Amino acid sequence: MNNTNISALTDICYECGNCFKCCPVQAITMVQNDFGCSHAFINEAQCLHCGQCKEICPACNPIEKHTPRIAYAAISKSPEANHSTSGGIFFELASIIIELGGVVIGAAYDFKTWAVRQVAVSKKTDITFLQGSKYVKSDVGDSYQKAKNFLELGKWVLYSGTPCQIAGLKRYLQKDYSTLLTVDLICHGTPPAKLFKDYIQYLEKKRHIVISDFAFRFKEYGHQHIGQYTYKKGNRIRKKPLYSAESSYFSLFLSSAILSDSCYTCDFADTARVGDITLGDFWGVRTELPRFFTDNSLPLDSSVSALMVNTVRGAEMADKIKGHLIYQPVDYDQIVRNNSRLNHQKNRDSSVHDILLTSYKDNGYNGIAKYFQKHADLKKYKMRIRRNMPQFLKKMIKKLFIEKPF
């Protein structure tokens, strides 16, 4: 590999496509591996070795990060916030941008193809399409170019995405715009889009249904990892809860077994952030802020956002929405210690990942489902034994494994 060739960056490619878009001779294509992860491939016969691809690559050229200036536990007062997974802060930020005549770009489902794409909206009623957690890699597509076009016209743009997508946007733009607000998410990692699409098709085929709507987290079931999907069977339309422990895709995502390659070497699983504002779940809020709910007359199962303000621009926008929030300033460490993705990468269990990759390559999503079911049944069997075990035996086993010989 020469010093301008990015073809070898397969495991750390963020799949932003910047290199593909900037190549003056179209020498770069984005190719997929067996798991559905994309990376750049350079045709050496066409390559000019100009280095433009490396210059615009966020993996080759790290973006400046910012230590949060202030952090909050926050919940939106607006009823529209119910469409959000956590406290609805994204809705309030998006609303302000649209009121300023701007556009908001974020991840939305395409229910016809089951892709997740970065799309632009300019109406408040359309913000709902961008709300809610989507545990799948979204396609950047031409969203960077659209953002640039709006910015060049002097319009406000809110771009929301994973930290690597924000880094890709900043590398693409090559300069700062005073009307750009970037919002990065506390990201667990994202499975390849192909895997999610195959999972939906697997469910439809297995249950003889047609799925028309899907949510990984559904607030009516509380703050836990319980989703819901809408499906049609015959002439009837029904809704079904999606329990993470019973869903192969959901469960393997949470265990970090099916993430994209670059997620295991993520440079953004860090306390320093690339966006003007960082949003995510405030896990552990009931322990960290035991009076937050009672003092604000909130139900104890309310979903609360962690709102981190990282830049001056982020602070200005956060100030604009405070009147729409119930919030409390917090020490940043209170958020970090309850969210591991703010201080370290996810480890890849190579043995499990390789088994899943081989199963997927040989048998499609059926192979992954069979692997999950086998281990899920074993887990249920162990839990059943534990439940029925006499208390004295539980104590003996616990003592055996906890006590040290020295």
Automatic annotation (TrEMBL):
InterPro entries: 4Fe4S_Fe-S-bd, 4Fe4S_Fe_S_CS, FrhB_FdhB_C, Polyferredoxin-like_ET. Keywords: Iron, Iron-sulfur, Metal-binding. Signal peptide: none annotated. Residues 4-33, 38-68 form the 4Fe-4S ferredoxin-type domain. Gene3D superfamilies: 3.30.70.20. It holds the Pfam family FrhB_FdhB_C. GO terms for molecular function: iron-sulfur cluster binding; metal ion binding. The keyword Iron-sulfur applies. This is Coenzyme F420 hydrogenase/dehydrogenase, beta subunit C-terminal domain.
